[in-house]
Amino acid sequence: MSKDSLLQLLNINGLDGGNLTYTLIIVMLSAALISFLAGELTRNYSQVDKLWSLMPIVYGWISLMYFPSSPRLWIMTVLITFWGLRLSYNFYRKGGYNIIPWKGEEDYRWSILRQNPLLKARWKQALFNLFFISFYQHFLILLFSSPLLFVAVHPENKLSFVDYITAFFMFLFIVIETIADNQLYKFHLQKKKKLAPNGKFTNSLSKGFMVDGLWKIVRHPNFAAEQAIWVSLYFFGVASSNQWLNWTLAGPVLLILLFAGSSEFTEKISESKYPDYSIYKQTVPRFIPFFKKK
């Protein structure tokens, strides 16, 4: 596909819009390649996990370098930066980062996934790391960050009520995700006896998995808030273009599908470890409050 045809497909006009598009793509491909090589050399497949909260910040500030006069883009980038720094801190305190960049704790699900008969062969694991873990997930990060690009090249509309309500909800979901992460982190500290019980997670400690706090409302409040954050970002593009549907919707849709599959895999592991988890699934919805279907 030629440069002009790609820009036409994305409805991007102007030299700066085209340069920004290709800059973001080059950054994404470089990060994906580095993640793949680091994962293969260390056998730690959490390399994309380390960058998940950082790449949208990079995309935001690169976009501002090209379009520094857009107030909407400033609001989006500041919110993304707040989200990313907070999530990075949460990842750091769980041991995800190390002074040596490619080290750090690997997400336990990757080691379990490698035991799948379909991925037993080393070359199959390498291909899975290349295409899904590294390149697809980095592409997805760029895709759900793409409202930055869309807003940058559709600057004609001034800030409106839609922008303010979108910013409010995006900030609200970041706060909810923060509360959920803090509750889960403290629960695991108490479960590992690194923190004295404070009575807030009594039921959770007795069952072995989280059922208190926001986990009384949905089974994955942190995952639910994460998806809602990026659905919210999409509406900045709506405000910018007055188009309720545009191509950047693909990002949050694919993210929701990723979390659906990821949470399903996580819950199968939990059901195999904790007898009460199946009962918990029947009484508490997965992502949407008051929606009891699995």
First and last CA, distance: 41 Å
As a percent range, the share of helical residues equals: 55-70%
Net shape: globular
The tally of strands reads 0
What does this structure look like?
- With 294 residues, the protein is mostly helical.
- The protein folds into two domains: 1-155, no CATH class; 157-294, no CATH class.
- Helices cover 68% and strands 0% of the residues.
- It contains 13 helices and no strands.
- Helix 2 (15-42) packs antiparallel against helix 4 (55-66), helix 2 packs antiparallel against helix 7 and helix 11 packs antiparallel against helix 12.
- The longest helix has 31 residues, at 161-191.
- The chain is globular, with a radius of gyration of 20 Å.
- The model has no long low-confidence stretch (mean pLDDT 90).
Question: Which keywords apply here?
Answer:
globular, 2 domains, 294 residues, single chain, mainly alpha, 13 helices
Question: Helix and strand layout, with pairings?
Answer:
Layout lengths: L2 H7 L5 H28 L4 H6 L2 H12 L4 H23 L14 H6 L8 H23 L2 H6 L8 H31 L10 H6 L13 H21 L8 H24 L3 H7 L11
Helix pairs in contact: 2-4, 2-7, 4-5, 5-9, 7-12, 9-11, 11-12
